[in-house]
Design goal:
CATH class of the largest domain: Alpha Beta
Mean pLDDT: 82
Strand content: 25-35%
Radius of gyration: 27 Å
Number of helices: 15
Largest sheet: 11 strands, mixed
CATH architecture of the largest domain: 3-Layer(aba) Sandwich
Helix content: 10-25%
Shape: globular
Oligomer: single chain
CATH superfamily of the largest domain: P-loop containing nucleotide triphosphate hydrolases
Number of strands: 35
Length: 605
């Protein structure tokens, strides 16, 4: 049977997972009467809620006697660690581009990784049936992108298709029959080479582990592509680290292969196929699983370093322990180390005190997804403001800079440029029309300046702007950047908030809580209209007398409070504030900085 390994890469919301749904249906993976779900590859609850792909997942389809292993990769740069690992398992990529939006930041990020590995892409211009689609412009922008990323002549000579993933068709021309995805299947078999590992089937077994997970029945499992040889159940293997050190020797208890959306046990794994192996107890991502006669580890793709860090601590507020059942620092540490083991883009370090942990990663979204997963598992946490990780080279301090692409109505472009280039020390790279009444702005902005900016961006553009960002490069430190301008309203009492008190406090600023909610000393209950913090009493009731007078019995009508999401809260807080996260609620509060924290902040400034 012919074998092909491909990855589908695209920007967020360009239709990648929907296209995979149609490939599964048209290849006969689903029975005609089988109940299926939309976006079947997004199996994670958070992926379904947010409409993004977080975890790289593989599937397999059969078409005209050929087996095609398909990997659905994340589109957001914060989860780039998944992308970098997974591209090592494939021989070709299908680059999906929205015909209206053209190549976007995450398209650029993942494509640069694929081109660097020498993969020859197939370009699919998706959503060409949209009213605002401009497939010719999008195709030209893809060519320019490849050229800017240093693509070879062979990579620049890429085939392309016009498609509609939702309608389930792909054609070589815009005037095609628009019937099915047969053109895409044929192009994959014709353009993507067969795995070169097939020629090494007689060599000793070698496989590079690219993803790690656990099964409740068979334990620790590692997935990767067989680089050489064959493997049968019961064979003894050894695991080598990146440097070639021996980690363990184990016996293979199970071999699983992707068949449709699930995995099925097989007796033998062959070179070139993507399989999952069980039986090991210590081996992890980037380790080489090999025959006992092999002494050299396979080269592992380097992972881009983290750019931000967040401190995870125990929830030590007066309301701790009411919602969650996992509140000890020991349990939090075990969970974070488990995450770092499966996600190579995350690093975990202990703080000097031992009751908090510094977690470093790619971006705010990646941190937000980790915290959201933990709170759903019953954890209670206190989270600090994200801090940018600096780098020192040749005596010069460098900081991460991100490329920001903004699509905004013309009337709001001035405010956006002022905020990005003025207050946040960014450099304007490009500004051009992007359709009727729209402007596209490209700027290089320090990561520090983008923390907490998204909420202000939505306010400046009246909710109509679209902002995408991606790590660009390291650049010299650009000096101090002004943080949040407004102060906060802080509770000075413990108890239950009173509507009358909140009603009187509304003239001081906007409130984050409503009536009859638990508050405590130091809890942030609102945003002050001025730049200083203000302690207030949200428990103060109305003084009662036995004298009636007009105007004294007015009905209390409260303005609905501002309810922040987890990511909004993390981006909003200042250095001396924390986000209190429980399974049921997100609160903000003030904190006392310990001496180590004060020294670290002084060095950062």
């Amino acid at each position: 049977m012919e074998l092909r390994n491909i990855a589908i890469i695209a920007h967020v919301d360009h239709g990648k997972t929907t296209l995979v749904d149609e490939l599964l249906k048209q290849s006969g993976t689903f029975r005609e009467n089988q109940a299926t779900t939309e976006r079947a590859m997004d199996s994670n609850d958070i992926e379904r809620e947010r409409g993004i792909t977080i975890l790289a997942k593989a599937t397999s389809v059969e078409w005209n006697g050929a087996r095609i292993n398909i990997v659905d990769t994340p589109g957001h740069a914060d989860f780039g660690g998944e992308v970098e690992r997974i591209l090592n398992m494939v021989d070709g990529v299908v680059l999906l581009v929205d015909a209206a939006e053209g190549p976007m930041p995450q398209t650029k990020f993942v494509t640069s990784k694929a081109l660097a590995l020498g993969l020859r892409p197939i370009v699919v211009l998706n959503k060409v049936d949209k009213p605002d689609a401009e497939p010719d412009r999008a195709l030209n922008e893809v060519f320019d992108l490849f050229a800017n990323l240093g693509a070879s002549d062979e990579q620049l000579d890429f085939p392309h298709l016009y498609a509609s993933g939702r309608s389930g068709w792909a054609d070589e021309g815009l005037d095609g029959p628009r019937k099915d995805l047969g053109a895409l299947f044929r192009l994959v078999l014709r353009h993507v080479p067969a795995p070169k590992q097939l020629a090494r089937a007689a060599e000793p077994f070698r496989m590079l582990a690219t993803t790690l997970s656990a099964d409740p029945f068979i334990g620790r499992i590692l997935t990767g592509r067989v680089e050489a040889g064959t493997l049968k159940v019961g064979t003894s293997l050894k695991a080598l680290s990146r440097g070639g050190e021996r980690i363990e020797q184990f016996r293979v208890t199970r071999i699983l292969a992707f068949r449709g959306l699930g995995q099925q046990p097989i007796d033998e794994a062959v070179a070139g196929d993507i399989v999952t192996i069980a039986g090991m107890s210590k081996a992890t991502v980037a380790d080489t699983l090999c025959d006992l006669s092999v002494d050299t580890a396979l080269p592992a793709q380097p992972i881009d370093p983290p750019t931000i860090s967040v401190t995870f601590g125990i929830n030590d507020s007066p309301l701790a322990g009411r919602d969650g059942n996992k509140v000890q620092s020991r349990v939090i540490r075990e969970r974070l180390l488990k995450e770092a083991e499966t996600n190579v883009a995350i690093r975990v370090e202990d703080t000097p005190g031992g009751d908090a942990f510094v977690v470093s990663g790619r971006g705010e979204l990646q941190m937000g997804v980790l915290i959201e997963n933990m709170r759903r598992e019953g954890f209670e946490l206190s989270i600090s403001r994200p801090r940018v990780i600096f780098r020192d080279e040749d005596g010069q301090r460098l900081e991460p800079v991100e490329e920001v692409i903004v699509d905004v109505d013309d009337e709001y472009s001035g405010a956006v440029i002022d905020k990005l280039t003025g207050e946040r020390k960014g450099d304007l790279v490009e500004m051009k029309p992007a359709g009727v009444g729209k402007t596209r702005i490209v700027a290089h902005v320090p990561s520090r300046g983008l923390i907490g900016y998204h909420g202000q961006f939505l306010t400046d553009t009246r909710g109509t702007g679209v902002l995408n960002r991606i790590f660009h490069d390291w650049a010299p430190h650009k000096g101090q950047i002004q943080g949040r301008r407004q102060g906060v309203l802080i509770s000075m009492e413990n108890g239950i908030s009173v509507a009358y008190a909140l009603w009187n406090l509304e003239e001081r600023g906007r409130m984050f809580i409503g009536a009859q909610e638990a508050v405590y000393v130091g809890m942030i209950i609102g945003e002050h209209s001025r730049d200083n913090d203000l302690e207030v009493n949200p428990l103060k009731g109305k003084k009662l007398t036995n004298v009636r007078a007009s105007g004294t019995d007015e009905a209390v009508r409260l303005t609905p409070p501002v309810r922040m999401s987890l990511e909004e809260a993390i981006a909003y807080i200042d250095d001396d504030e924390l986000v209190e996260v429980t399974p049921k609620i997100v609160r903000l509060r003030k904190r006392e900085l310990d001496p180590h924290e004060r020294k670290r902040q002084a060095r950062a400034e």
